[in-house]
Every structure is written in C-alpha cells, then in structure tokens.
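Risk register update: the risk of archive-format incompatibility is retired. Evidence:
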Amino acid sequence: MSDDFKVNIKQQSTWLRGLYMLMFALFYGIAEFVLFAVVLFQFLFKLFTGKTNIRLLKLGKGLASYIYQIIQYLTFNSDYKSYPLGAWPKDGPCELIKED
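Archived output:
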C-alpha cells in the first residue's frame, strides 16, 4: 500500500464527514417525504379553494432550500452543515414564490 493511502484512510475528518453524510442522508429522506406531503396538500388546497396556501408555499420553499443544502453537502460542493447543526434556511436559492 502506498503511504498516501495509509494517511488518507486514517484521517479522522473524512470519517467524521462520512458520519455526517449518513445523518444528512437520513434527514434528506424525511424532508423528501414531508415535501411530498406539502405538494399533495397544496394541490388539494388549490383544487378545493382555487388559491394557494401561503404557509405551505413558505414551508415548501424552506424544505426545497434545505434539501438543496443537504445535496450540496453530500456531493462535497459545500462544507456547510445545515439544520439541525446549522440554521434553517431563510431564503431559497432563487425567488420563485407567486401569489394568486
């Protein structure tokens, strides 16, 4: 085995990130389930009332931003640890909310 491999395999920071990645993968699954519920409730709300629910819009935007942060971390594009280790996202990556 090369010396680089031995050094890399023993890096505690990489193993710690792996544990965080497992935790965030679990949170991703939960967030995806909740987002699906928001989508379903928003559709039903629009179907029955003709309007969109502002609270569900905000929750959906927050969940989408949260999922985006998790994906950024899992793909090594960011070192930011999102909720619950960081703050819940306040603004999404872009403004797409429309109000009826």
